[in-house]
Design goal:
By secondary structure, the protein is α/β, with parallel strands linked by helices. The chain has one domain: Glucose-6-phosphate isomerase like protein, domain 1 (Rossmann fold), CATH 3.40.50.10490. The chain has 8 helices and 5 strands, in the order ααβαββαβαβααα. The longest helix has 22 residues.
Length: 200
């Protein structure tokens, strides 16, 4: 169980150290976008593939608990996007074809695109209205491995593929939920009232 412990400690240390590389201004702009969307009754669409998609689903669930009109791409109940709706696109590489293509279509109908990615200059970053840069080693990266090692000295066996990006993005988005709760005057009781009451 030595590797388990080393991995747990290295991943935790990375997430803590990554906070210093996450822009408060970018995160603040994300929160502002979401509050404006909420106040204007606009929709939020979450886009992500693979494990990034799972992070997006978790974020969508909490937004729903807060009372947002929120959907996840791929579900059959996703309605048409309208101008000023918001798309949150999650891709560590910023090159995931499904995510980039969906974001391009969203832009073409006037939606605002917010991306969470490690690479602001990626195809996804370049078409986004706002980029929130999330440090991390992505499954296709080589150039950012040096930065990861500089942060915590972590190598592939301890956090394979996109683990660092995905977990850091998850913590960022859960922390955004806490900020939204405070800004919207919501309590945990408010969220509980929106929680599913039919469960298997």
């Amino acid at each position: 169980m030595r590797v388990f412990r080393e991995s747990y400690m290295a991943i935790s240390k990375f997430i803590i150290n990554a906070l210093d590389r996450i822009s408060p201004e970018e995160v603040g702009s994300l929160v502002d976008f979401l509050i404006k969307t909420y106040n204007e009754g606009k929709k939020v669409l979450i886009i992500g593939a693979g494990r990034s998609g799972l992070v997006g689903r978790a974020f969508a669930m909490r937004l729903m608990h807060l009372g947002f009109s929120v959907y996840v791409l791929g579900e059959t109940i996703v309605p048409a996007l309208n101008p000023e709706d918001v798309v949150v696109a999650i891709s560590g590489s910023g090159r995931t074809k499904l995510v980039v293509t969906a974001a391009e279509v969203a832009k073409s109908v006037g939606a605002r695109v917010i991306s969470l990615t490690t690479f602001p200059d990626s195809p996804l970053g370049k078409i986004s209205d706002l980029v929130v840069r999330i440090p991390g080693r992505t499954k296709v990266s080589a150039e950012d491995d040096y930065n990861v090692r500089q942060l915590v000295g972590i190598y592939e066996p301890l956090a394979p593929l996109g683990t660092l990006f995905e977990l850091t993005a998850m913590v960022v988005l859960d922390s955004v939920i806490a900020e939204l709760m405070q800004r919207l005057g919501k309590t945990e009781e408010d969220l509980k009232r929106m929680h599913a009451n039919i469960e298997i």
